[in-house]
Every structure is written in structure tokens, then in C-alpha cells.
Amino acid sequence: MRFALIGAGMIGAVHARLIKALGDEAVLAAVVDQNLERAGKLVSQYGGRAYATPAEAYAGEEVDAVGICLPSALHADVGVEALRAGKHVIVEKPVDITLAAADRLIEAQRDTGLTVSVISQRRFQPPVAQIRAAIDSGTLGRVTSGIAESAFFRPQSYYDGDDWRGTLAIDGGGALMNQGIHALDLLVWMLGRPVQVSAQTGRLAHSGIEVEDLAGASIVFESGAIGLMLASTAAYPGRPVRLTIHGDQGTAVLDDDELAYFAAANADAPEAPVLEGPDGWGPVELAHLAQYRDFIGAVREGRPPAVTLEAGRRSLATVLAVYESARSGQPVKLKED
Asked: N or C: which end of the chain has fewer CB within 10 A?
């Protein structure tokens, strides 16, 4: 599969490395960035040709799929352009910063029949897959609650490094929208459709930004289960994602990228899948690679990807409900997907 990467910044470099690691499964055909020098650096390391615009890349190269690695507010429109040009799309999280933008992308995907997946690589981690398998098999019984913690740390220089970081217009949000959304996606994946959110946010440890560096939320799900979410970029020195899922027949805990605890009334922990990849890669990197492989498989087999565009929209809707509740001081009900 021939990929064009749109965006040659930090996350674009991550995606270029992933595509290179896929070997015979994929090739990097083009790197697009308004800063051609930056695009050229990625090309020199990972292959392809540098272009200033997506249209130029589509005209100049044979491209099957596009990886979108731009600031969040640009995701949907660039994705729509790619779909209209006949390209499959894998887009970084969040899918965009508004539901209207996400819906434009969904409409284009439905019109074209092409494949779109939203990056949520933690779903592919073996211990996460174990927990989901325990839910699906009934091993945990009725799922009653979950707790997701994304207690990260970002220094002030992280926000000062790019003029769009920490802005509402481009970043769309802070600790929850851009870091905690991975853990939130896992919570939603495990517990189902959120129906009500009560939340608070704060900006406690950073200056010169318009977004939160701390968010806490209580989420009620359609099943009646209750989830708690903490997202922070103000928790020095930062901790790995921690996810706890409780059921009336068992409990499972993900911590430090491992299944740290598993207890069930009538079963042992399900077997963990094995992820293949380069030696020395960490669990999250291998999971990221697994999502790329799933995306390629979905395109070739004509099936939905494991992380669909609608799943990305559900996570975004939950994030936006957290922000609305924090602004209003009132619980917010979520509409049907």
C-alpha cells in the first residue's frame, strides 16, 4: 500500500517510522508539509518525495492511502479532500475538534465507500485486548464501573514550542482532547455508549494557553455503568495510563502497559495476543504498528477497521460533553450517535 503522509511534524515522523517498519506491506510514497525542508528531512530518512500540498502529491504520485498528522482542527477537511481524491484515510486522534467536522468526514466516507480509521492504538495493546475479551466472554459478568487515568506531564516548553498548541481554535482542548482521549477511548470501548457527563476542568500549572491541563469527569453509560476519568498534563513526572474495569464477576487493571491485576469468580485471565514488530519497540509502538496493519487489512479485505470513524466520533462527543459540563456547571446529556 502506497501512503502519503500529510504533516511532517513530530507525529508525522512517528507515522513515517511505522510505515517503514511495515516492510513489504507498505511504502511511503509522499510527505506533504507547507515547510518543504521539514518534509524533505522525513523523505531523506524514510523515502518518498516531498510536496507542499496534498493535491500536488496526489497528482505526482500513485497514492492508495493517506495518513493525516496535522493539528487537530485540520483533520476532517484534509480527510474529506483525500477521500474525494479516492484515497483511504488513517487520521490521528482526535478525529477533529467539532462534531460538525467529524460528520463532514463521515458523510464523505459514506459517499465514497472508502476506509477511514482513527488512531487509537491502545486498543491493540495485548493487555487491553485481554480485558476486552474478558468483557465479551462474560468473564467479568455485568460491567458496573471503570476508572481511566491519564496522569501525564508536559512542561511549559511543550505548549510554547508551537504557536497552535494550547489554542481553542486549533488544538480544540488540552489534557483531555489531546492526551487523555486515548484513555477515554478505552473507557468508552469497554463500557459502551455514554449518556451523561458531569465534569470539571482547570488550568493549574501552565500559562499562556487557552485549554485545560486538568480534567475530571463522571460518565454514566447506557448500561447503567459509571466511569470516572482523570486527564492531566500537570502531574509531574507523569505516569502511564491506568485503566480499571469492574464487573459483578471480576475486575481487571491495566497499569504500566501490563495486565497488572485480574480476578474473576469463574475463570482465569484470557490469553494475550502477541504483537510482532521490530526488536526494542515498546508496547505502545507495537500497538501503533498493529493498528496500521489492521487498517491495511481492512482496505484489502473490504471490512471495517477495528477503530472506525464512528468510534472516533463517540470519543470526541464525550470530550466535548466534558467541556460543556465544566463550562456550565451542570450535567450534560449526550445525544444518540
From this structure: C
DSSP states of 90-153: EEPSSS-SSHHHHHHHHHHHHHH---EEE--GGGGSHHHHHHHHHHHTTTT-SEEEEEEEEE-B
Name the DSSP letter for residue 334.
P
Q: Are strands 214-221 and 194-202 parallel, antiparallel or unpaired?
A: antiparallel
Question: What sign does the dihedral 130-131-133-138 (CA atoms) show?
Answer: positive
- Crossing angle between the packed helical segments 75-84 and 99-112, to the nearest 10 degrees: 10
Instruction: Please say whether the beta carbons of 141 and 115 come within 8 A.
Output: no
C-alpha separations of 19 from 16, 53, 302 in Å: 5, 20, 21
**Helix 181-191 with 309-328: angle, nearest 10 deg:** 110
| pTM for this entry | 0.96
Q: What pLDDT digit, counting tens, does each position of 40-57 carry?
A: 999 999 999 999 999 999
Which residues are 143's β-sheet partners?
A: 247
Residues 6+ apart with CB under 8 A from 107: none
- Residues of the chain with pLDDT below 70 are none
Whether residue 143 contacts residue 246, with contact meaning beta carbons closer than 8 Å, is answered with: yes
Using DSSP, state whether 228 is helix, strand or coil: strand
Q: How far apart, in whole angstroms, are the C-alpha atoms of residue 260 and residue 262?
A: 7
Give the per-residue pLDDT at 270: 87
Please give the grid coordinates belonging to residue 253.
487493571
Q: Are 53 and 86 in contact (CB under 8 A)?
A: no
Contacts of 208 (CB under 8 A, 6+ apart): 156, 159, 160, 166
Lookup: cell for 293: 496493519
pLDDT confidence of residue 112: 98
31, 63 Cβ separation under 8 angstroms = no
Q: What share of the chain is helix, strand, coil (3-state, %, to 5)?
A: 40, 25, 35
pLDDT at position 337 = 78
